[in-house]
Please model this.
Amino acid sequence: MSSFCFPPFLSCTAGTFRAAVGGSAECTSCVAGTYKSLPGQTSDTCIQCSAGKASLEPAQNSSAECTTCVSDTFSNSDNDQCVRCPSGTQSAAGSGSIDDCSNCPQNMYSSSDGSGCLSCPTNSSTLGLINVGSISGCFCDENHYSEFGFGDAVTGCHRCPENSRSAINGSTLDDCKCTKQLLRRPGGVQCEPCPRRSFVSKDFPALQDCACEVNAWSDTGHVTINANCEKCPLHSYSSLNKSTIHNCTCDVNHYSEKGHANETAGCTVCPPNSRSGHD
Model:
């Protein structure tokens, strides 16, 4: 009966092994995720790290080399790495399975960076959802807003400006509608009344909804970004809303070559011994 004999000069150190039968005479390192604390033993004695721990390098010679996986990670089946929990979940330190990663509760979120579950920013919530995997799932509360509609990690969500409100969650500033027939100018934040000599008769108005009052005019008959309503020129009037300069009619006993008030000179008084009237 024959037997296999190892060369007497070769003795494997801790962390390495030599196959018991038919293997190479060379010593082989225990793979990552295992260790062997005694020298001169076979591969059967490479011991796998326990669940919740991992060793990243081969040829480990002590169980102390199996380090505990930190919170929000878990050890894989080979115990050679700690894997991050999926976004929207968290785990305690020393977790040994993806099943140990539990959902983030309401009003908390986590990303894929292993940060664990974090509270939604100020004035935002997950609207009752769990397992939220991004800060974008923290929607601004009603009557609050942010640039993107979800809570900023530093500043949270801001309350809508005075005299405005938002009826929906996840609002941007545009969703904070002005009340009491007020308006927000393009690029502005605060709600304000229509400019002088203009009025509005609807809720949630835009700037162009500010129509010129009686005895006032603009090129369009309403306020624009570049122009407010101006008073009809000297010695002229308008009995209409939404007037342009053509509606600024000369007063009795006054005239203009254009048939309506001149933008700069207004209307001129009739010469002596003459008069004008209106049909």
